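Students often ask why inverse folding is considered easier than folding. One informal answer: many sequences map to the same fold, so there is more than one right answer. In these notes we will look at a single instance of the problem. The structure comes first.
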């Protein structure tokens, strides 16, 4: 039941966005998942993180925001090559040219739809130290990073509109494999500014939530009843504890929890009694919480802001 609020999010999201009305006419940032790859032997892992952190800092100016589960991927490819050596007094310095390629990958296919790159040169006693210096120069140049990201940000909304069918198909494939949470998370990664695709994604998300709940009910109830038949009260509780409180089988789940608690008390099974009592209490609390969220949504203009990320995308 830890994801019970998912239903409230899925059902209320269209009303929430309409209520916001894009406050003050400001477009919401488009979420991108950031991936980093480094191809340079001996380069410290921290060097890749320098670039990633610097890019994250520059994202807002390009209308982007980092979000790990977004179907839109910003891939950072860090590479370097030795371009020469020079004598500096008693020692020889290695010269290395570092490059950082920023690629915006299409949702679904992973094809490159926009790219930019930065290069800097560094020097050091070794190729690794020279590369680290060059990377630090790129990471420290925020104006250049913002300029490189500007064109990518301009294409991000377009990426969802032209690739919407691929996003929906990817979500459907995940759902076919019973990976419902991943599928719904993918659909909620479609930004609000991609209005046509966002509308289709939310419609599919609501349908997948219904499918998820039905599947969850079937497996949970079957497992719980099998455990009860063998007298495994703790097993029955474990099967029921993750069923959403607003799933179609909610009443059956509640009845089974009550049945487990009654049998636990009759057998003087203290541990099972406490678990059943706690589960029923949590079940009722979460159901009431969701009803409260729904009630507030009907009466206020701003509701459940960013709850989708909090529920669907745990850190």
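Output (designed amino acids):
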């Amino acid at each position: 039941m830890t994801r019970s609020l998912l239903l409230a999010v899925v059902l209320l999201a269209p009303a929430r966005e309409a209520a916001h009305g894009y406050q003050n006419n400001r477009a919401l940032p488009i979420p991108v998942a950031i991936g980093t790859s480094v191809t340079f032997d001996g380069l410290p892992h921290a060097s890749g993180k320098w670039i990633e952190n610097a890019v994250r800092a520059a994202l807002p100016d390009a209308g982007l925001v980092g979000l790990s589960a977004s179907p839109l991927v910003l891939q950072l490819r860090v590479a370097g090559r030795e371009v020469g050596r020079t004598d500096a007094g008693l020692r020889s310095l290695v010269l290395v040219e570092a490059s950082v390629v920023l690629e915006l990958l299409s949702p679904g296919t992973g094809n490159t739809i926009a790219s930019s790159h930065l290069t800097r040169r560094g020097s050091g006693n070794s190729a690794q130290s020279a590369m680290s210096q060059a990377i630090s120069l790129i990471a420290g140049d925020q104006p250049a990073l913002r300029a490189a990201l500007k064109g990518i940000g301009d294409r991000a909304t377009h990426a969802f509109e032209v690739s919407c069918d691929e996003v929906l198909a990817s979500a459907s494939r995940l759902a076919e494999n019973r990976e419902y949470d991943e599928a719904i998370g993918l659909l909620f990664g479609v930004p609000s500014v991609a209005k046509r695709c966002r509308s289709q994604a939310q419609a599919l998300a609501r349908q997948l939530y219904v499918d998820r709940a039905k599947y969850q009910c079937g497996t949970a109830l079957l497992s719980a009843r099998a455990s009860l038949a063998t007298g495994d009260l703790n097993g029955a509780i474990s099967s029921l504890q993750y069923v959403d409180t607003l799933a179609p089988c909610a009443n059956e789940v509640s009845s089974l929890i009550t049945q487990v608690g009654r049998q636990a008390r009759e057998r003087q099974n203290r541990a099972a009694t406490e678990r059943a009592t706690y589960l029923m209490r949590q079940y009722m609390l979460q159901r009431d919480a969701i009803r409260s969220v729904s009630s507030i949504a009907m009466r206020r203009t701003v509701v459940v802001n960013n709850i989708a990320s909090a529920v669907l995308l745990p850190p």
